[in-house]
Amino acid sequence: MAKLSTQLTTLFIVVALVYAIVPVFSVEEVEAKRVWNTCLVKITPKCALDIIDVVFGNGTLSDSCCHDLVKEGKACHDTLIKYISDRPSLIAKETQYLKKRDDLWAQCVSIPKTV
């Protein structure tokens, strides 16, 4: 199971890098890339990968990563997951991923902040 999780995480890193490097041709893609670059600076790379693993795999998210996700904001979270799930290889399960995205958000906002 850990091997599958590692492979899935690696796959999404590669997909993210490819889409970051490939020239952008449409206004929609330019906007998605701008949001992508704006939002990802608000969370650690490990938390970003853990969030992807939760939504697109069977991972778990620590409370500290949940706090980072909430700090990132719902608009960023929604946009980034939608951007990834719109890829041709993932579109068939997009509804499932968007539900997991929303469930993760609800879980994270319900965790009280520690001082």
Describe this structure in words.
By secondary structure, this protein is mainly α. It has one domain (2-109). It has 6 helices and no strands. The longest helix has 20 residues, at 2-21. Residues 1-20 form the signal peptide. Keywords: Signal. Pfam families: Prolamin_like. Residues 38-109 form the Prolamin-like domain.
What's the arrangement of secondary structure elements?
Blueprint lengths: L1 H20 L5 H13 L5 H12 L6 H10 L1 H12 L8 H16 L6
Q: Give the terminus-to-terminus CA distance.
A: 35 Å
Shape: globular
Low-confidence stretches: 20-27
> What sequence of helices (H) and strands (E) makes up the elements?
HHHHHH
| Total number of distinct structural domains | 1
What structural category arises from helix and sheet content? mainly alpha
Give the strand tally: 0
What tags apply to this protein structure?
115 residues; mainly alpha; 72% helix; globular
Short description:
By secondary structure, this protein is mainly α. It has one domain. The chain has helices at 2-21, 27-39, 45-56, 63-72, 74-85, 94-109.
